[in-house]
Amino acid sequence: MTPLSRPNHDALPIEAALHAPTLLATPRRHRIARRIVLGLLAISVAVLFIPWQQYVQGKGVVMPLRPADRPQQVNAVVGGRIVQWHVGEGAFVRAGDLLLSLEEAKQEYLDPETALRLEEQVEGKTVSAEAKVAKVAALEAQLVALDSSRVLSLAQSRTKVEQVRLAVAADSAAVAVALVDSVIAARQVEAQERLGREGLKSLVEVEAARSRAQAALARTVHARNVFARSQAELQNAILEVDAVAASYADKIAKARADRDATRAEVGDTRAEVAKLRNTADNVRERQALFEIRAPRDGWVVRALRAGVGEVIKEGEAVVTVRPANAPLAVALEVKAMDVPLLRPGRKVRLQFDGWPALQFAGWPSVAVGTFGGMIQVIDQVDSPGGTYRVLIIPDPADDPWPASPPLMVGSGVLGWAMLDTVPIWYELWRLLNGFPPSVSQPAPGGIPGSPGAK
Length: 454
Description:
Blueprint: H1 14-24, H2 28-48, E1 51-64, E2 72-75, E3 80-85, E4 92-93, E5 98-103, H3 114-198, H4 203-288, E6 291-293, E7 298-303, E8 311-312, E9 317-323, E10 328-334, E11 347-352, E12 371-378, E13 388-394, E14 412-423, H5 424-433
Antiparallel strand pairs: 1-10, 1-14, 2-9, 3-5, 3-8, 4-7, 5-6, 7-9, 10-13, 11-12, 11-14, 12-13
């Protein structure tokens, strides 16, 4: 008899014995699905550890690097009417080539002989100035002559004073002699009268003594008159010295005033001559400026005033010229929050409009159609849109920028400033949390001539 704990498989039907292993086995499609899921999971985990290069993205345009190489407007220095255009839009010109010709439009310069008329005025004023210079020389000679005459006249006057002073001294002595004679004659008269009363002298002798006394008195009066006249002459001589000095001082002062006035006239005339010459030179320069020429080699981009006969104002722009052979750069506009991550010298990948490219920002090594660059300048002030301009120049260690066809100034550019390399899982975690890119490594030292270069 078969034990109860051991079923009798031999007693089961043959169909049940064949169906049991089939129910316990995993279906084939389930095994394939599991393998696919496990493979995808493994690939996903592996991808999370693949290196990813962080970047800062910005849009911009192509532009000349140097300010002097950027498109510039050619202005008319003087106003006038357009006579003829010598070039057309899109033409290549050399520095100094004639772009267009103008003609005079101001009424005061319409006379074509204006410069010649001004030269004639200059010649007339020059002759006048020379005549006044000669007058100044004549007045200088007159001053010298007046000074010599003053010295001589003063010497003569002083000599006359000395002569009159000697005459005064002589007349003073004559007065003293006359007084003595008069006293003696008076004493003799008294003696003769006393002797006449005593009968010792005759009346004739007494009268003769009296006559001599009268004559002595008359000589005294005459000597005094001569002395007084000499003193008056001395005073007149002294006054004449002062009068001569004052007269010559007046003449010399007048001559000096005339000389200084003439010198002032010479200065005014020379100033007028200089002003006329300046005006004549300006007229000639103005006539030369009616030919507007190219400031440098380049292409005529746009004519701002086209019609022949149109009147343009002074300083008005007439044509735009784009300089040739200008080194190009890219101006990227970067958000303010990303600017602290950038430094001069950091690498940048660029995608130019019109050039097919396949860009993987985090894997620049597999990108196709992009070009290398490096940061040269970061603006210190923001742009009107709140972004900051970053100037990018070609990377000398990378492929050169497109040259055939050449890049056009103003064409669009998409750029990625490359930062540090991190795992993909870190980048995903950073994006989910809204953290900024990390810059754990020191930025390059910059390039020569850049603000951040060491």
